[in-house]
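Re: beginner question about structure tokens

> Can someone show what the tokenized structure looks like for a real chain? I only ever see the sequence side.

Sure, here's an example I had lying around. Input first:
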Amino acid sequence: MWPELFRIGSFVISPYGFLVAAAFVAGIWVAARLGARYEKMDSRIFWDFGLAVVLVALVGAKVLMVFTDPFYYENPANIFSLDFLRSAGVYYGGLIAALVWAAWYFHHHRLPGWRIADAFAPGIAVGHFFGRLGCFTAGCCHGRPAGGAIAVTFTDPGCMVEPDYLGVPLYPTQLIESLGNLLIFGFLLWLYRRKRFNGQIILIYLGLYSIFRFGVEFLRGDLRGWILPGYVSTSQFIASLLLFGAAAAYWRRARRPADPTV
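And the corresponding structure tokens:
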């Protein structure tokens, strides 16, 4: 665990908080650049939407965290704690909230939603790359016990690793997911210049990340909620739904005539 990056007076800046903030800024910046370059749209559209959707995503992430983390069932008062406010929450809760709100936002403001979503897809991936590095510095989202050179060990009692796993070599699931998101980011940048229809990039992202996340879940060792205890986690269930939904939408949009207005 790396508890402190620097201080401003008595205010402590943690690596986790810094990297999560960097994730949001980097994600919006990438989206704005891609939107201006490939979609020929004003970058301010992406900054306005991006800053708003960050707030929606944070709320959604925390809501799903409350429903999936047994700690909050046993200690409901901690929902109002400073630690709860500092946490980024559950990624899929934020993603789902962002997707739902984005659909409303694009319709309400008559914006080309699929084109904007395409520009944000690589931004989401690179943002998630930074976010998982933040998880590693805090010890959350950790893996189950592992052996060999790949394993990492957390020893600081102040980190977010389950107490039984302190001092135990674990799979570095945070770093694995960070690397996976970086690879997805690179692939999406390559694909963007070869895009065949609006919506292709965001749908490819949803499909790739869902497959990747489903696999990483088998290596996780933290308490994160189950659909079938010990077999199917909440994130694996959501990943399955998103994968099939993205595949169906991809098949449908790939068959439709190109429409530059959506």
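Each token stands for a local structural state, so reading them left to right follows the chain. The first helix runs from residue 15 to 38.
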